[in-house]
Amino acid sequence: MDNLDAARMQMAFTLIFHIVFACIGMVMPFFMVISHYKWLKTRKPEFLTLTKSWQKGVAIFFVTGAVSGTALSFELGLLWPNFMKYAGPIIGMPFSLEGAAFFIEAVALGFYLYGWNKIPERFHLLTGVIVGVSGVLSGILVVSANSWMNAPSGFDYVNGQFINIDPVAAFLNPAWFAQALHMTLAAFAATSFAVAGIHAWQIYKGRNTVVHKTAFNIAIVFGAIAALLQPLSGDYSAKDIAERQPAKLAALEAHYKTEKGAPLYIGGIVNEDTHQVTHKIEIPKALSFLAFGDFDAEVKGLNDFPEQDRPPVAITHYAFQVMVGLGTLLMLAAAVYLISLKKRTWQDNKRYWLYFAVMAPVGFLALEAGWIVTEVGRQPWIIHNVMRTKDAVTPMPGMIYSFYMYVFLYVILSISVTWLMARQIKVLNTTQTS
Amino acid sequence: MLYVVLFFTVLSFFLYVLLGGADFGAGILEMFSGAEHKKSIKKTVYSVLGPVWEANHIWIIILIVILWIAFPAFYNVVIIYLHIPLTLVLLGITLRGVAFVFRHYDAVKDKTQHLYDRMFEFSCLVTPIFLGMTFGTLLHGDIMLLEDSPNADFYALYIHPWLQPFPIFTGFFFSALCVFLSATFLIGEAKDYEKRMYMRKAGIATLVVVVLGMATLIAGYIAGNEFTQEFLSNYYALGAVTLSGLLLYPLWKSIRIGRIIYCRFFAGLQVLLILFAAIGIHYPNLIITRSGEISLLANRAPDAVISVLGISLIIGGLLIIPGLLHLLKSFRMIKILEERD
């Protein structure tokens, strides 16, 4: 592996972990706050038990998210110093605002975690709401930096120089809304299904069902809504990519030949040498319609891009198929939940709970796949059409060792967090609530 | 707006050193305490730092973000040539953070607590050493730029500059400062019978700070580094350090009469004076390389960037600082009220 690939692997690896921690840290406070609100309203002990159990989860994920985020703020420079040298000032605004939002979250979390029986109840609840809102806000803000890499704006690039820098225009770059919406919904869908799934498994196992059903019902609502809205946001994103990053669109659809009335491939095996896609299901004209809202629109194929400007096709295409496929499964699960609200007997069937337990990891797998689509699909550029990833990487050799170290660290970290959560649930199961 | 940005740069640097430093120091204190004190230190640290411990460590993110936005070319040199010590700092920050939260939020308290404790203490010791080393390297003058010496090997470019007596002593000096801060901060929080223990530790830390500070200067002097020579001939720097030393007397007095606020103020001021001396004499040329000096100011971003950053920082500051103060105040009040009951 050369230095560039090692740096890319390290970035991918750390982001893949950070994204999980960050999403849970963003969404779980909402569950916690709702449970807390219900406790204040009803004074039913299961809500208090659940709130306190979830707050520990929030604390653990907030911290792992915070430290992996701190690591990333350094890694951006450590791995891509030349990117940061030029892009840093341009996209500084979302980062500094994210820093502020994150700080507010940390302060509010301080109040929340340590405020039990110490500060007024309503103010205590409010600090919980602030944790959630500022968490989501920092997520939305930081996505602006990524969307800028896809839709660079707010500067003029003349003779290799970045001039006329306008940080506000860069911050409000045209891809931001589509990406932030898609990412936020994904965070809610993934976290909600994961949390609901874990509690569903406990119900399936018949452990402390009162608390776990309460938990499931709070979490799944968010997941169901997000999963049903996500396809709309996905469609919006696809049209945005079609317009702004035609090479990425062509790669994620494995579309080599420029044509009018382009077909959509579902599945398929990509041969990057022969430019053939075999074993696919072909839907005539669907790609043209999805990308441009017109069955006969022309979709530019990869063959029309110079070889050095094409992203890796197979990875992008497979990741996209996985994302869409898993997203569809989540929609189905959302439908099952909504129907079960009418058909109450479904919830008496153990298989209902097993089904949701199996769905637990699906949201996060879809989210990771989507992240791969957008990042690998942007290659070979780090700033779309402006700077290549290979020109941004650190001159320091030996990045492979740094990569190994991070893999080691993050694997240990993930195992510990999972183990801690398991212990948390074990304790929850032995808590008497009535 | 440049001054607003500089203000926040300095503010986040100072606050990280004072607050983050005291956090690290607490871990080191714990490490060098006998079993009978370990538990009580752990408890005191948790009750004091608990609500703000995460906030304390966000200052370094703020600092890094300001540096890369406002002083990109300056930051570029730091991040390329100090890759290895900074990676080790990161490793330490990560382990410290997770160990702190694991040991307090693990639902089951069993033998793994020992593991968390060791992890916490070790990372608290190592992180400030590498942080200090990073700082020392910038001023030591052994950094070689790739464009000036394209044939230099890996060791010469990425290891040699920080693996020198001056940066290493700076690292140890900084961690001793952290212990000093932590011990003096904690005196105010301790129960009577523990106060003596913290006072003793603060005393030892003071001694170590003085010894290591001298050792650092001697190392710099022997290596003939420009920074040390300037330091020793600069009246402001010498004055600041002397004043810092003289403040030990009022510090000791205020501990004696139990005025916690004064005691913290003096300890904080002492460290700030040392930082002022270290940064002030060579400002704005805060990186010294073999082929010349690199100025913070000359490498700043265009004015439009500085203005927007300045405004963002003011807005952020207005939102955060009252909240943070309120957080500190609330828990202080609660603690006082509880003690009264």
How would you concisely characterize the structure shown here?
The complex is a heterodimer of chains A (434) and B (341). Chain A has 434 residues and is mainly alpha-helical. Chain A contains 15 helices and eight strands.
- Report strand % of chain B: under 5%
End-to-end distance of chain B: 49 Å
Total domain units of chain A: 1
When the domains of chain B are counted, the total is 1
Which geometry of chain A do the CA atoms define?
Answer: globular
Specify the structural class of chain B.
Answer: mainly alpha
Q: Give helix % range of chain A.
A: over 70%
Q: Total number of β-strand segments of chain A?
A: 8
Unreliably modeled segments of chain A: none
Order of helices and strands of chain B: HHHHHHHHHHHHHEEH
How far is the N terminus from the C terminus of chain A?
58 Å
* Number of helices, where a helix is a run of at least 4 consecutive DSSP H or I residues of chain B: 14
The main pleated sheet of chain A reads as: 2 strands, antiparallel
- CA-based gyration radius of chain B: 20 Å
Give the SSE layout.
The complex is a heterodimer of chains A (434) and B (341).
Chain A lengths: L2 H40 L2 H35 L1 H10 L1 H23 L6 H30 L5 E3 L2 E3 L3 H5 L4 H29 L4 H36 L1 H7 L6 E2 L3 E8 L4 E8 L2 H7 L5 E2 L13 H30 L7 H10 L2 H17 L2 E3 L3 E2 H4 L6 H32 L4
Antiparallel strand pairs in A: 1-2, 3-6, 4-5, 7-8
Helix pairs in contact in A: 1-2, 1-5, 1-7, 1-13, 1-15, 2-3, 2-8, 2-15, 4-5, 5-7, 7-8, 7-12, 7-13, 8-9, 8-11, 9-11, 9-13, 11-13
Chain B lengths: L1 H30 L3 H15 L3 H18 L1 H10 L1 H23 L6 H29 L13 H6 L5 H23 L4 H31 L3 H8 L1 H12 L1 H9 L3 H21 L6 E3 L2 E3 L8 H38 L1
Antiparallel strand pairs in B: 1-2
Helix pairs in contact in B: 1-2, 1-3, 1-6, 1-8, 1-14, 3-4, 3-14, 5-6, 6-8, 8-9, 8-13, 9-10, 11-13, 12-13
Keywords (chain A): Cell membrane, Electron transport, Heme, Iron, Membrane, Metal-binding, Transmembrane, Transmembrane helix, Transport
Pfam families (chain A): Cyt_bd_oxida_I (PF01654)
Organism (chain A): Flavobacterium subsaxonicum WB 4.1-42 = DSM 21790
